[in-house]
Predict the structure.
Amino acid sequence: MAKINMILQGKGGVGKSLVASLLTQYLLESGKEISCVDTDPVNATFAGYKSFNVTALDIMKDDDIDPRRFDKLVELMLALPDDAEMVIDNGAATFVPLASYLSENEVFEMLDETGIEINLHTVITGGQALPDTLTGLNSLVKTFHVPIYIWLNNYFGSISRKDKNFESFKVYRENSHRIAALIRLPQKKKETFGKDLENLLTAKMSFDEAQESTLPIMTRQRLKMIWKEVQQELSNSGL
C-alpha cells in the first residue's frame, strides 16, 4: 500500500521543511522508494535538497487552490508504486485553502478508496508561536479523520504552560485517540548542536552528506548524535 505523508501547519517558520527533510532521510534509510513534493509558493525550502530530487509544484492561483495544478499532485500520488511513500511539504500560505480544498472535495476519502494511506504531520513549537501552532493542530483534528503525527519543536522555547507538558494541553487531552504519535525533536545547546543543525539546514544537506563532507570532526560528531536521537524517535513512532 502506498503512503502519503503530508506536512501541514498554518504558522510559518516553525520547522515544517525540517520535518520533511528528517522524515525523508528516515524513510530512505529504511529502503523505501520515496517521492518528494514541495508545494510552498513562497519559500520552497524542501525543494532545495538536491539529493532528495524534490518536485516543486505550486498548487496556488492567487489566494486559492488551482484545481488543475492540484490535479497534477493527485496524479503523482496515484502513480506511486505499492509500498512507496510520498513526503509533501506545504507552506503556511497554503494551509487554509489547501485544508478547505482537501475537505470539500473529500480528497483523502478518494485516495483511501484507491488503497493509498494518508498520514498528516504537524509541528508544535514553543515560544510566541505556541498558540498559533496549537490552533493549527486543532483545525486539523476537527477537519480530517486520518492519523496525525505531532512533531514537538522546543527550539524557539519550551512547549509548556504553567509547568504543564504538552500531554496536559486541552487539544491533546481531548484528541489523544486521534494522535498517532508524538515525535520530539532533540533539545540541545543552541551554541553548538543548534548552530550545527542550523548550518546543515541552510546548506540543504542531509546527515549522510554531512558525514561525508569536510566539516570539522566535532561538527560531524554532534550531527551524528542528533540524527541518532531523531532516528530513535521516528522508530518509536511506528512510521
